[in-house]
Amino acid sequence: MSTERDAGLQALQQGNPAEAAPLLETACQQNPTDFDALLFLGAAYGQIGRQMDAINTITRAVQVQPANAQARYNLAVAMEQGGYRDQAITALGQALTLQPDYPKAQEALRRLQGGGASAGTGGGSMGSGSMDSGAAPGYGQGAPASGQAQPGYGQSAEPSGAPQPGFGRVVENQIALSPLRFR
Questions:
Q1: CA-CA distances (angstroms) from residue 28 to 13, 43, 181?
Q2: pLDDT by residue, tens only, the chain of 183 residues
Q3: Can you tell me whether residue 97 is helix, strand or coil?
């Protein structure tokens, strides 16, 4: 366990993303494949308005655990907040390919595709603090990399076997890669 990650998570849970970010940056430098640290750092960046940093960091989390629907949902949130609506729709589709019964992703995708806005989300944004990590007040349910139950976490989208590479469609129980493009 990373002391910096734990301290960063605590700061994030206490509503101090600006304090959490440098702690989580240190945790990510010490262990660049720490999925939780990457996901929490992306959430902190999103909360302090560093959308491109959030996108890049959460993309790294997706690369560490490509079959994690929570990471893809969080990537969609960061993308939309950064002005990448089409890529956000793609990431939401990927999250739903991995976990079809993901209510937050279903709702966000419907809203982004024009199928109805959820209450309290005006202007076509998923809203700040709507990433799915269980890391801070206002966050939804997700799944830790360890697969252990933790407060605020729901079921993991991670398959029981080794993570399957990819974005996009399911092909014989594997996820086919199709990288997201930024303009």
A1: 18, 14, 24
A2: 579 999 999 999 999 999 999 999 999 999 999 999 999 999 999 999 999 999 999 999 999 999 999 999 999 999 999 999 999 999 999 999 999 999 999 999 999 998 554 433 333 344 433 666 543 322 333 333 333 322 222 223 333 333 333 333 333 333 433 445 444
A3: helix
How many CA atoms, within 13 angstroms, populate the side-chain half-sphere of residue 79?
A: 24
Sequence-distant (6+) residues with CB within 8 A of 4 are 23, 24, 26, 27, 30, 37
Q: How many angstroms separate the Cα of 86 from the Cα of each of 7, 92, 166, 183?
A: 35, 10, 18, 11
Q: Which amino acid is at 9?
A: L
If phi over 0 gives left and psi between -120 and 50 gives alpha, with beta otherwise, what is residue 81?
A: alpha
* Strand-strand pairing, 170-171 and 174-175: antiparallel
- In 3D space, the residue among 183, 170, 75, 67 whose CA is nearest the CA of residue 126 turns out to be 75
- Residue in 75, 69, 54, 130 with CA at minimum distance from that of residue 102: 69
Phi/psi of residue 154, nearest 5 degrees? -110, -150
For residue 51, how far is the Cα from the chain centroid? 13
